[in-house]
Every structure is written in structure tokens, then in C-alpha cells.
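For the sake of transparency, this paper describes our internal protein records without simplification. The record that follows is passed on verbatim for readers who wish to inspect the format:
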Amino acid sequence: MSNTPPFEKYTELYNELISLTNGANARILQEVPDAYIYENVNFFLKSFMVVACVYLETYLKEVSQLVVDSVQLRLKNYPLPHNLIKWSVDNNKDKVLKFSEFELEITKKDIDDIVSGNIGKTINLFTKIGVDIASEPRFDSNKDVVGAIVTKRNNIVHHNDDANDLTFQDVINYIDTLKVYIQAIDDKVMTSGLL
């Protein structure tokens, strides 16, 4: 099975982050530790955690946008009357009638406003675009760890958590979990029939 371009991009970025994290770890474990890394280990650990979550949220945003764009392209290729779709969806409650082709009115900002590393919000986002990620076993088996990763990142960013309970190996393990997690999401997107 192939993957989406966002998956390929963020898997590569995660691999680079693992290399960077391994490099920092090696520099503090060498016989004479690198003073800069050693004295700022907390800063590096917190930074790597934040970057890992940024990659997660940006992947979620880009793959969601990919689905929306794909469906919009289908609507352009196989146009449907706006009024018929509005009647079916909400009985034209807003009384907006257009004698034109139906178009999705989902903007990048709409996706930005709801994308989150939070598990519940992620499930909600993908439910809205028609992808049942909650039914994917690898998603389900990793969601608690990912939830803990996102909570840790939130504590670092919003509550200045000092991350004393983290090691470089913990960060690498978290990144490996995030890679499995986005692979599970990507597989569901790829098999959804929406691309």
C-alpha cells in the first residue's frame, strides 16, 4: 500500500529528529560530555518533544486538507446541484439558494481551527471528513501513549514543565510511537476511498 505525501514528508522529518536526538544523547554520554548539550539537556529534551508534536499536528492538518481537496476535485469533475445537496443536508435552513455546482465550503482555516494532537479532537476531525480512524487497531493501541505525549508537550509549553522525567531515549521511543500512529491514520485515509 502506498502512503500520502504528508506521511512520507513527516516520516522523514521524524527520522531526522531521531538522528538529532541520538546525536545529542551520544554527545552527553561520551567520555567527556559536550558541555553545551550537558548544561542544556532540559532545553533540548523539551524542544524535541515540542517539535515531535508539531510534526504530528502538521501531518494531521495536511492529510485532512488532502482529503478535502480530493473530494472537492471530485465535485468539480462530477458536479452536483448546490440546492439539491443543501436540501438533502439541512433542508435549506439558511435559505441560501444557488443555481450553481455544489462546492465544499471548508477552508484551511476551518481545518486549522480544529486540528489538534488531542486524541478526541483528532477522532472528531477525521470523523468530519469521513475517515473512521478509531476503528484502526494500531490507532487504538497507540492513542493512550500519544495522548500522554501531547499532554507532556502541553505541560512543557503552557506550564513550563521542566521535563526532568524525560531522557533522550524516551523522546526517541515517543517519536517511534508517533510514526506508528500516523501510519495507522494514513492507512485508513488511503483505504477510505476519498483520495
